[in-house]
Amino acid sequence: EKGLSIERPSKVEEIAGHGIRAELSRGVVLCGNRKLMDAQNVDLSVYQKENFGTEVLVALNGKFVGNIVISDTVKDDAKDAIAAVKKQGIITAMLTGDAQVAKETGIDEVHAKLLPQDKLSELKKIRENHGAVMFVGDGINDAPVLAGADVGAAMGSGADAAIEAADVVFMNSEMKAIPEAVGIAKMTNSISWQNVVFALAIKIIVMIMGLFGFANMWIAVFAD
What we know:
The protein is of the alpha/beta class.
């Protein structure tokens, strides 16, 4: 639409947690965050961030030439899903590499601008403060955290690396699946304890009856 000619780079280098370095006929292009620009000594005095979102800065031959701002949209069912999780007595937290987002979804804690390795260290801090952690993610950068959490859950539409590292995979991308899964887990745990208590109670009662001569072998077999 803009009539731009697209050139395939002769060489591309991905710099983890920072961005991409590519070599074109016009020179070396850098695309990434502010950390990448600072590391390459790019002058950003003319850049002012006005929008709220993830910033992608672009430099050509060491000179800042422009930027793109990408804003994530909140899923329609996110607010209701977070509210349902909090009703279950669970503390919610967001670990993200993006700029800090507004807490319109009602999330208790937001830890922003994190590199993949930072997410894992933040997860450990949350575990120390609040106990066992369930982490839900869908990106490649979420794979280490999914593996390091007490329970890792991936969205079915997520990256293969995230799905491989997760303990649980939701078959859809609906946020309501999270409180539903927690509810099923709690109900299953409750039923398991009911079965254990009921079984032990019956055995103890029959054992006492046997000691006093009121239970024979057939009653003991039936109780078992």
